[in-house]
Amino acid sequence: GRETRLRVVLRVRPLTRTETRRGDQRVVHSLSDSTVHRSATSSLGARHDATFGFSAVFDASASQEAVFEGSGMRQLVELAVDGFSCTVFAFGQTGSGKTYTLMGPLSQTEAQPAAPALLGLMQRSFSYLLEQSQSHSSDLALSASYLEIYNEQVRDLLSPGPPCALPLRWSKSRGFYVENQLCVDFESLEAIANLLLQVPLTAGSQRRRTSAHALNRHSSRSHALLTIHIRSQAGREKGCQSIPTHTQTWVPQPGACPSKQGTLCFVDLAGSERVKETGSSGELSVEANNINRSLLALGHCISLLAKPRGKRTHIPYRDSKLTRLLARSLGGSGITLMVACISPSSRCLSETLSTLHYASRACRVTTRP
């Protein structure tokens, strides 16, 4: 019940080969493990410098392991096992490294998995969850759901057949929830590791909408939410009854052992983009407008949540499907880690500055886990 600030970390990706050949200047520099400096010169020759502070800053040389350890992801997994609702989401301009940070290289497949050093936050979290189960005194039951928000439609990425739109409902007891979503149960942590450690880029994520444009060859055209439901049941004693594995529909049974139910949600946001710079037209333009509209709604909610509780006005979570699904994570009873990803290139200065301000406001948001 204690107020807890959102933990916000920043990751600065390296300059790409295209940016280096083009002669782009590096305008973002890490000053320490928690501060970053942005320096630029306007067309009139005026200097524009600014320094931003976050819970952690990872420069272009930071490894995937360093991001996992330094971001607090390990603690987030432990809290989820202890029964808390935990969320990690990556945001930033298209092509800034969000999906790589969460999932690793896009080229990995089940037959050719990524090198261990390149695995993202998701895979490392699953591995640590496996370690927790082996050393934990309680039994862990896991299930998972995988959704995307594409053109303001919520679609199930795990259900068989073509993804179809699902209704988004609200209730006093559950808040906003997706009706009829498929929640897959796993008999063991090894099973979930096999499916979600190696298969996300060849199963669910392969069905996720992506397209190529001038800024990114594999641009995500939807927001994706992968949720791991964790039920931790204390060691069974005489008289304790077996409890169903469906986390969302579980009802305490007479004589059941005490249990904790937590969630670990990974949110890969589609990148913000300027339609003029991406060269998008037709369907791509419609997708970009829907992406930017939902990100704008998210930014508006964060700005209002950053105000002191006594000065807050109504938080417009209903303005988009994305903000409805993230309502509990942002301003409710969850524990949230935000990973802001930026490019150091002078060509991306405007979007980079927007992300830095976005992340700075989020640092002031509090929840009551």
UniProtKB/TrEMBL annotation:
PROSITE patterns named among the record's database cross-references: KINESIN_MOTOR_1 (PS00411), KINESIN_MOTOR_2 (PS50067)
Molecular function via GO: ATP binding; microtubule binding; microtubule motor activity
Listed GO biological process terms: microtubule-based movement; mitotic spindle organization; spindle elongation
Positions contributing to ATP binding: 92-99
InterPro entries: Kinesin-like_fam (IPR027640), Kinesin_motor_CS (IPR019821), Kinesin_motor_dom (IPR001752), Kinesin_motor_dom_sf (IPR036961), P-loop_NTPase (IPR027417)
Domain Kinesin motor, residue spans: 5-365
Sorted UniProt keywords: ATP-binding, Cytoplasm, Cytoskeleton, Microtubule, Motor protein, Nucleotide-binding
Cell location: Cytoplasm, Cytoskeleton
Taxonomy, superkingdom: Eukaryota
One CC-aspect GO term: microtubule associated complex
Family: Belongs to the TRAFAC class myosin-kinesin ATPase superfamily. Kinesin family.
PANTHER family found in the cross-reference section: CHROMOSOME-ASSOCIATED KINESIN KIF4A-RELATED (PTHR47969), KINESIN-LIKE PROTEIN (PTHR47969:SF33)
Protein name: Kinesin-like protein
Organism per entry: Upupa epops (Eurasian hoopoe)
